[in-house]
Amino acid sequence: MTLPAQQPPTRVLVTGGAGFIGSHYVRTLLGPTGPDHVAVTVLDRLTYAGNRANLAPVADHPALAFVHGDIRDADLVDHLAADHDDVVHFAAESHVDRSITGAAEFVRTNVLGTQVLLDAALRHRVRTFVHISTDEVYGSIPAGSWTESEPLAPNSPYAASKASADLLALAYHRTHGLDVRVTRCSNNYGPYQYPEKVIPLFTTRLLTGGAVPLYGDGSHVRDWLHVDDHVRAVEAVRLRGRAGEVYNIGGGTELTNRELTALLLEACGADWSHVTHVEDRKGHDRRYSVDWTKIRDELDYRPGTDFTKGLAETVAWYRQNRDWWGPLLPGTRVVAAR
Ligand code: NAD
């Protein structure tokens, strides 16, 4: 009797897999709820935001390979694309404030890096290329929510670089027929987030008795998405999404920065005397809000994490993992929100 031949695993190249969201995606793919037959290669440059410790829970997994390298390295990327079925592209410069003080690295990594990856994916006819974009590409919306057909109107250099990459990715689908799928998500939160974005910055500062900077009048509104929900949505798009399509991914909890600050103060046992009001960020978008009906109806995605519970667990994680963030604090900026 001949046994059926074992199917080779799906080989997934995850760029930026040592960052906050990318590492969560990798830990999920290789964890108990991940797909059965998958091999993951992380390509990460390990910038200030990348950290091998984010992959510690799966570091010994036999299906994980780590490549320390740059998405702009055309030879390296070409070689990797040849050996992979799918690409899930998280790697980026991701902090708006840094893009305001210096946009060059954002253009180099987010735009040129994406183009290098797309070219390699095309040359080797990668099966699926999931490009992780952001709700910030739409600009700012005073009321209502953007659907995927909204024209892009980014305001910050970060958002403009992401919009450029997002449009390039879609162009590779329209021009070359490459199976590109784009996701645009709202503000993520959860464990392992580098302490420069608002939730981990405020949490780590408050846990060490410090002060936190609140931009302007604190009335800017963000929709919060737990990173668990985000990676579940990304995986649904990789497995069941359609080529050339854009999927908004929302979290379902809109809060002003002031409301968020109040919740974090309470969770950390601090009061408003720890809050310093600072001058507003230049060009600060007032509100982001995505309509995620499409991914709900097509791919059965719904955010599943209750925000109160998710925030409490996130703060608890930072309380318990000072070894992870303590060494990172000297490198963080004073400014906060994404
Ligand atoms: P992050 O800053 O935590 O991680 C980025 C990772 O990319 C790091 O590991 C870094 O080392 C790596 N990287 C940067 N430049 C690289 C290069 N040239 N070559 C290879 N690796 C490189 O970012 P994140 O918060 O995990 O965001 C991941 C993706 O999701 C980004 O594309 C970001 O634009 C997008 N996004 C994030 C959020 C959010 O709330 N964090 C919201 C919407 C969209």
UniProtKB/TrEMBL annotation:
Pfam families named in the record: GDP_Man_Dehyd
Keyword Lyase: yes
Membrane-crossing residue ranges in chain numbering: none
GO molecular function, one term: dTDP-glucose 4,6-dehydratase activity
Source domain of life: Bacteria
GO biological process, one term: nucleotide-sugar metabolic process
Reactions performed catalytically: dTDP-alpha-D-glucose = dTDP-4-dehydro-6-deoxy-alpha-D-glucose + H2O
UniProt cross-references to Gene3D superfamilies, sorted A to Z: NAD(P)-binding Rossmann-like Domain (3.40.50.720), UDP-galactose 4-epimerase, domain 1 (3.90.25.10)
InterPro entries attached to this UniProt entry: dTDP_Gluc_deHydtase, NAD(P)-bd_dom, NAD(P)-bd_dom_sf
EC code(s) of this entry: 4.2.1.46
Keywords: Lyase, NAD
Cofactors that this protein relies on: NAD(+)
Residue stretches making up the NAD(P)-binding domain: 13-314
Family membership noted in the UniProt record: Belongs to the NAD(P)-dependent epimerase/dehydratase family. dTDP-glucose dehydratase subfamily.
Protein name: dTDP-glucose 4,6-dehydratase
Organism of provenance: Streptomyces solincola
Underlying gene: rfbB
